[in-house]
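User: Can you predict the 3D structure of Alpha-glucoside ABC transporter permease? Sequence below.
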Amino acid sequence: MDFADISPKLTMLVYGLVAFAVVVGGLLLLLDVVPSYFARRRERQLIAVAAGEAPALPPGRMHKPREFGYAIFFLLPVVVLLLIGLVVPVVRTLVLSLKNGDGSEWVGLDNYGWMFSNGDILSVLWNSLLWVVLVPLVATSVGLIYAVLVDRARLEAVAKSLVFLPMAISFVGASIIWRFVYAYRGEEQDQIGLLNQIVVWLGGTPKQWLLDSPLNTLLLIVVMVWIQAGFAMVILSAAIKAVPGDIIEAARLDGVSAWQMFWRITLPSIRPALIVVIVAITVATMKIFDIVRTMTNGNYDTNVIALEMYNQAFRYQETGQGSALAVFLFILVIPIVIFQIRNLRRQREG
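Assistant: Sure. Here are the predicted C-alpha cells for Alpha-glucoside ABC transporter permease:
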C-alpha cells in the first residue's frame, strides 16, 4: 500500500480527531466554568447582602438572572445545532427535490411524478412497505412471546442475554453473518452456508436464496427481526415486571387461565411500552439501508427507499430524484413521530 495514497485520508482523520477533541473539550470546559461562575456570583451577592454592603433582593429576583443565564447557555447550542444539522439540510433537500439532477434548473414536481410513475421505484416503495409492515409486527411479537416465556424462569438473565446479543452487532456485521448463513455453492461442492447445508442434509438441492424475489426480501427481513427482537424483548420484559403484583394475584384468585391472564391483564398493562417498541422499530425499519446494501446491494428486486435515495443522489448523480425520495421518506416518518408525541403526552396527563 502506497503511503502517498492514504496520507490525505490520515490527515483528514487527524483533523477530525483534533476538531472532535476541541469541541468536546470546549463543551466540557463550559459545563464546568459557567455553573461555577454563576455559583460564585450568587455567593458574592449573598455575602454582600449579609455584610450590609448591598440591599437585599427579593428571592425570585435573585434567581432569575442565574436561571435565565442557564437557559441561554444550554438552549442556544442546541438551537444552533438543530438549525445546522436538521433545519438547514431539510430545507436544502426540499429545494433540491424541485430541481433537476445537477441542480441547475427548476423542474417543479417532476421528480415526485417520476417517483410514482417509474416501475422500478414503485417496486422499491412496495419493498419498503413490506419491511415496515412485517419487521415491527414480527420483531415485537417474537420479543413479547420470549419475554413472557422467560419471565421469572430459571436462568432468565442468560436466556435474555442470548436474544439481546444481536443488538450489540452493527447492521453490517449482522448482514455479513447472515450472508454466510445464506451462502451457496454448487451441488458438487461442500456447502458453507448453514441454510443450504440443512437442505442438503434433508435430501434437497442447494439454492441461491438471495436471487429469488420476493423470497430474498423476506430473508433480508429475517436479519432485521433477528436484531430488533432483542430490543423488543428487553423493553417489554421490563414492562411485564412492572405490572402490579396485586392485579396479577387478584386475577389468579378469580381463576383466570394463562391465556386470559396474557390477553386481559398483561397486554393491556404493557400497552404504552408496546407502542414505544413498535414505533421505534418502525422508524428504524423505514431508514433501513445497511442490510440491503451489504447483502444484495438492492439487486434482484430487494431495493428499499434509503438505498435508492443513496444510489440516485451519489451513484447516478441525480440529486433531484434522490432528494425527492429523501423528502418522501421524511414525510412518512412525520405521522409516526406525531403519534408518539401525542401518546407520550396522554400518558403524562393520565
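The chain is about 75% helix and 0% strand. The mean pLDDT is 84.
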